[in-house]
Amino acid sequence: MSKKNELHHFFLRKKPVMILVNLAKDAKKRYASVLAKEVDCTYSHTVRVINILKKNGLVDFSRDGRTKTIQLTGAGKELAEYLSKTVTLFDKIDRD
Is residue 5 scored above 60 in pLDDT? Predict the structure, then answer.
């Protein structure tokens, strides 16, 4: 499977979309454990998804001592914005 097809398949799944959308919600610092709780996902799966996002240039990590926080890159913010609109649209369709 090509890298492009891998990303398409990856972003059509619920948890990766929700992780990106939650990272974009506000400016507060996010940790993997907090993010896992927000999207109702296991910590290990959340870390796996975050590492894929990092590998594809959508998130960066910063360290403050032993604490590692996650933030979106410019491309990650742009994609999260589109995915957020898509999620909103799907929610609207479900209500109709």
Answer: no
Which pTM was predicted?
0.82
Answer whether 30's CB lies under 8 Å from 61's CB: no
Classified by CATH at the fold level, domain 3-95 comes out as: Arc Repressor Mutant, subunit A (1.10.10)
Q: Is 41 helix (H, G, I), strand (E, B) or coil?
A: coil
Torsion over CA: 79, 75, 18, 26 (sign): negative
Terminal CA-to-CA distance of the chain, rounded, Å? 36
Task: Give Cβ neighbours of residue 7 (< 8 Å, ≥ 6 apart).
Answer: 56
Quick: pLDDT tens for 37-73: 999 999 999 999 999 999 999 999 998 888 889 999 9
